[in-house]
């Protein structure tokens, strides 16, 4: 264990690690910086940050080329999006403000795919793990029931005033916070389980059901892979460990007299939430039927609901699959069907390393999250998602070699 700890300390002391960490941390905090300054133009900081990330990693890239054979599906998808944006410019129903915001929030973060080819996976996930821990610390400071924010002044109140009942969040909303905690828990589960109880605390208090489900899929994948290889002892130890962690969390709740009603409340609203989303999903289907090539970026999702207030199309603010179906049309559907096909093939195959298990778990958890949330529109998280997508397609290229 000492060797592992020393190895991690050596890793974080590398200048390239510190540079990438600082840039990504700044990126993750931009949504809070703009709230404090009350100036949304600061959200554009992600543009120079991403470009500098690419430039600074030109000499330490982890692979010899940016694209491989199976990346053709990704490249065709991007080309389709660019083609679609040109087409919708001539559509009188297109909201051009929504289009511009959508390109910024939804399309620009796709550069994360390229960034994944410039930074090693183990390097990146250790950075993201530290960022998740820092956001957990911020979330604890701001969580109203703990009362710590009261001594932090008016700046803290800017974020507290925007929080929903029982939902812990950092500088962005609880949806983005829950998604980040989910990623952190998965990475910690495979790479550093000492940190898992802390990140699980944040995941639970985010009160995001889809994030809970995403982490549960990670546990199921681990159990499935161990059953396949006959490692029943590992599954038993996992069960005991999770039970122990659960008891520790309950003990913390009891010791600090924390009200758990918010968890019961979230589960009690499953039917209601399902009904609300199913209406949006039907509307998403109607959008697609009426516009099979796609309505264009920023026309029906969070961008349309929050920034444009335009009702040219039905809004789909809760359900990324149906938002993609609406906005990206047949091109988006074909790409994600191919994506899901390869995911299922790899999920059911024998995974050879913790790196492969982590990549598949992160993608699977994202697929779960996409059922009820538009994670491609979550600031910072969408860039991270596309980084993981890049790693996944590298895995596809290594497992399914073309002649």
Account of the protein in words:
The protein is mainly α and 403 residues long. 70% of the residues lie in helices and 0% in strands. The chain has 18 helices and no strands. It has helices spanning 2-12, 15-37, 46-56, 72-88, 96-107, 112-115, 121-142, 154-160, 174-191, 196-206, 209-228, 232-255, 261-268, 270-290, 302-308, 320-347, 354-372, 381-399. Helix 11 (209-228) runs antiparallel to helix 17, helix 16 (320-347) packs antiparallel against helix 17 (354-372) and helix 17 (354-372) packs across helix 18 (381-399). The chain starts with a helix and ends with a helix.
| Oligomer designation | single chain
Low-confidence stretches: none
pLDDT average, as an integer?
A: 85
What structural category characterises the helix and strand content? mainly alpha
